[in-house]
Amino acid sequence: MAHSEIGGTVVEAAVLDLIRRERAKALSPREWKFRLAGYGLGIRDVDGAQVVTRLPQGTDLGILPRHMN
Predict the structure, then answer these.
(1) Which of 4, 16, 29, 56 makes a 20 to 30 Å CA pair with 36?
(2) Which residues contact 35 (CB under 8 A, 6 or more apart)?
(3) How many structural domains are present in the chain?
């Protein structure tokens, strides 16, 4: 799946701030993903990019910037 197929957009600022705060609190990537699930968000890897999705629908919200990988 190419970036264009998933919208190629970066996650909106408010969601990105939440993701950053939760990443700073988490001790591991696994814990980070678990913490985000509590907010109804998920992260999946697609062709080397991390895509933020809304759970449980699986709706793509956008791509995380490379520096957050």
Answers:
(1) 4
(2) 22, 25, 26
(3) 1
